[in-house]
Write a structure and sequence with these properties.
β1 and β2 form a beta hairpin. This protein has a domain of 79 residues. The N and C termini lie far apart (72 Å). By secondary structure, it is largely without helices or strands. Strands 2-1-3 form a three-stranded antiparallel sheet, with no helix packed on it.
C-alpha cells in the first residue's frame, strides 16, 4: 500500500513530477510593459471635478475659496473635496498642515487645496439627426 494517505493534489508535494520545460532565467517580465489592459482601453477620457456631496460636475478653474455647488449649495473649497484629503494620515491630510481642520465639510482657507479630479469617459459625440448624414457616416471610407 502507498504511503500517500490522500489522493488530493498538494498533499505530499515531494512526489511531484518535474516540469516539462524549465523556467526561464533572469528577471520576470514587467506585466505593465505592454501597456494598460482593461475596460475602456483607448477610449477618450476627460478630467472632471465632482462635488463630494451630490456628485455634480464643476469646472476645475471655478473652485475658488468662496465657491459653492450650484446643485446642493455646499462649499467646494473643503477638505473633503481636496486631492490631499486622507483619513489615515496625521491631521487627515497628505500635506504638512500646522493645524488640524476640525470640520472637513466646511469652507477653509488651506493653501494646499487642490480639487480632487477624476478621469471619466468623455461624452460620446452627438449622433447625426439628419438621416442622410447618418447614412453617409455609416458608409464613409476611412
Amino acid at each position: 500500500m502507498s504511503e500517500r494517505k490522500y489522493r488530493q493534489r498538494g498533499y505530499m508535494e515531494s512526489e511531484q513530477q518535474p516540469r516539462s520545460q524549465p523556467r526561464p532565467k533572469g528577471p520576470k517580465p514587467d506585466p505593465f510593459e505592454r501597456g494598460p489592459r482593461g475596460r475602456g482601453l483607448g477610449a477618450p477620457t476627460s478630467t472632471v471635478f465632482r462635488c463630494r456631496v451630490c456628485g455634480e460636475k464643476h469646472a476645475v478653474a471655478a473652485v475658488t475659496v468662496d465657491a459653492t455647488c450650484f446643485r446642493c449649495g455646499n462649499d467646494l473649497h473643503t477638505c473633503s473635496n481636496c486631492a490631499y484629503f486622507d483619513t489615515a494620515r496625521p491631521q487627515e491630510c497628505r500635506k504638512p498642515v500646522l493645524q488640524r481642520v476640525v470640520n472637513k465639510s466646511k469652507r477653509n482657507d488651506c493653501t494646499y487645496f487642490a480639487p480632487n479630479t477624476i478621469q471619466e469617459f468623455a461624452p460620446e459625440p452627438a449622433a447625426a439627426t439628419d438621416p442622410r448624414a447618418a447614412f453617409d457616416a455609416l458608409f464613409r471610407k476611412k
